[in-house]
Design goal:
Largest sheet: 7 strands, mixed
Order of helices and strands: HHHHHEEHEHEHEEHHEHEE
Distance between the termini: 70 Å
Radius of gyration: 21 Å
Strand order of the largest sheet: 5-4-3-6-7-9-8
Low-confidence stretches: none
Mean pLDDT: 95
Strand content: 15-25%
Length: 284
């Protein structure tokens, strides 16, 4: 019988051939379609992600298991649903932290995560603004066990996801979720504000890949050609920062030019993404 001889390896190889040139892996899976195919196969079979154990790869699968794997491949390839929404998992950051995600939150991927360890060294109270899933705030809390963190978002559904992740890591004693439109319901001053605001225009959004359409639209679009929220945060952050407090904010490559023009008198340091200025750091 056909199914008596199909192994996990066979299905992974099938996934690679099906995915080739048909999906946009950028931010929505892995650049290497083999890694995505392997991950979705192991997820579907409820196997531990021990990719060094050849026993799993050589194991034979049943007809029902085969159908289950093909179904998740079909959703990724034909419907273009991002990998993270298919599994409700996102592994992210320097600790390879697992986060629960669904389509109420933007998939965690901000390059700010690469600088968190350096930024939080001497910080006691931190705000993660526009927090989405809460990934950046939670990673900060896991990296530094003596800081207090508040995470804010305007979207109640996003905050439910963030709270679920806080609960999963048992950080309720140090992390609080707040519903707020930027600084509207923020009452404290912070040593560090982390912000990844919406930062693209309606026109740019229309040109996004299919995968991004599954993410919440309000996590992408801002008025004033994408600049509105960045400007609001830049202008108001000083009121919510302690002396020598830091604002670290993702602006995107295009809008870094707007920031440089409007705030040319400020001593802003830039971190790069793909070789171009993308994240501003300003010490107030």
């Amino acid at each position: 019988m056909f199914f008596e001889n199909i192994t996990v390896n066979d299905v992974i190889r099938l996934g690679v051939s099906k995915m080739k040139n048909k999906i946009n892996p950028y931010f929505f899976g892995q650049e290497d379609t083999f890694i995505t195919s392997r991950y979705l196969t192991f997820f579907s079979l409820n196997l531990p992600y021990d990719f060094n154990n050849q026993i799993y790869f050589n194991s034979k699968i049943t007809k029902n298991e085969y159908k289950k794997i093909l179904n998740i491949f079909e959703k990724r390839i034909n419907k273009r649903i991002p990998t993270h929404y298919l599994t409700n998992e996102c592994w992210f950051g320097p600790l390879n932290t697992k986060f629960y995600v669904n389509d109420n939150v933007y998939i965690p991927r901000s390059p700010i995560v690469n600088y968190l360890k350096e930024l939080i060294k001497d910080k006691k109270i931190i705000l993660d603004m526009c927090c989405g899933s809460g990934a950046l705030g939670i990673i900060a809390g896991l990296l530094k066990d003596d800081c207090l963190i508040e995470m804010s978002d305007i979207d109640s559904k996003a905050l439910k996801v963030a709270q679920k992740n806080v609960d999963n890591y048992k950080l309720n004693n140090r992390i609080k979720c707040i519903k707020s439109n930027l600084f509207k319901n923020i009452k404290k001053k912070y040593d560090l504000i982390i912000a990844v605001p919406p930062q693209i225009s309606e026109e740019e959004y229309k040109n996004n890949c299919v995968e991004s359409s599954y993410e919440p639209k309000n996590a992408y679009i801002a008025n004033d050609n994408g600049f509105y929220f960045i400007k609001e945060i830049m202008d108001k952050a000083p009121l919510y920062l302690n002396k020598n407090g830091i604002l670290i904010m993702e602006t995107g490559i295009r809008l870094s030019k707007n920031v440089k023009e409007k705030y040319k008198n400020l001593n802003i340091k830039w971190y790069k993404f793909n070789g171009k200025d993308c994240i501003l750091k300003y010490v107030y």
